[in-house]
Amino acid sequence: MSYLEFLRVLCDVWGYRVFVGMPVEGYEELFKYMVPEYMHYIPTLSANIALNIAAGVSYGDVKSVLFIDSLDLSKLTYEINELNSIKCMDLLIITNGVVNAVYNEIELSSVVGNLEDATLLKDALNILILKDGDLHA
Amino acid sequence: MHRKKALSYIESIFIEENNTVVFYIGKYLAYESNNSSVVKVLSNTDWFSIIFGLSMCFGKKMIVVCEDFYLMRYLNSAVQIAIGKPKNIIILCLVTDTYLLGCKQNTLFNSVNSMKGLLFGAGFLVHDYTAYFKNKTELKNLSSRLRTIEGPLFSSISVDDDKMFNIGKDECNFKDFLNKIGETHVSNLS
Known about the structure:
Chain A is of the alpha/beta class. Chain A is about 30% helix and about 20% strand.
C-alpha cells in the first residue's frame, strides 16, 4: 500500500480525524505527507505528550491516531491503561514492530497485524503494527 | 492574598459562563473549593496535554488553574500548548514557589530567570494578574477582560504560602464531566 493510500484509508475508510505523534523509525517517508495544512496533524515534543493529546481528543468523541515508536510504546503501557480506564478511547496506535513490545499488557485493545485485511474494534483502542514492506512511496 | 480567596474570585468570574469549563489541577486546589461545576483532577497526570486535546473538540473556553509546581513538572506540555496556539485555553498559575506540604522546599519557579519570558517565547500571551486580585474593583475590570480575551494565555497570580496537612483523599470528577458533556456534545472537527 502506498503512503498516500494508507492515509486515505485512515481518514476516509476508518474515519480518523486527528493525528498526533512523532516520526516512527523506518517510516520517515510517511511523515512527509502528513502536513498540518492538509490534515489535523499535531507534531509533538515527546511520545508522552502525544499520548495525552490523543487521549484528550478521544475523550472529546473524535477518533484519533497516535504514531509512536515501539520503544516508547513499551514504556507507556501503564499510562495507556490508566487513560483508557477513564473512558474507553477510540484511538488507533500505529507503531513499528522493531522491538517485540509488550502489546498484550495494553488492556481492552485489539492488535491488528496485517494491514491489508485489517478489521478494527469499533469505538475502542486498536494497535496497528507496521511491518517492513507494508508501505511504500 | 490567600489561595482560597483567589480561587473564589476565579470561580466568581467564570462559573456562571455557559461556554467555559474550569479545571483545578491538584488536590490542594480541589480541597479549597466546594463548587461542583469545577472539574477537579489529580496532579499526577499530564492534564495540560489532555485539555489541549479536548480543546480541539469543544468550542468552550478552558480555564486551567494550577500551581507553580505543576507547571514546572509539565513545562514541556505547556510549551506544546503554546506552539499549538489554541484560542480557547487560559492557564492561571497560582504561584507560591513552595510545595504545600508543610516543608519549605522550593518549586524552582522563581529560580528560572524569566519564566514569563520563556512562555512568551514559546507562544503564550503572558500576563500577571496578581495586582487585579488585591481588590474587588480591580477584579471587575479583569473579569470583563477575561471573558473576551483569546488564548493561549498564561497568567501568574502570586498567592500566600499557606501550609496544608493531611487534607485527605484526592478528589477527581473528570469522569462525571465527560459523562455530562457526552450527552450534549457534537464535535466540530471534520
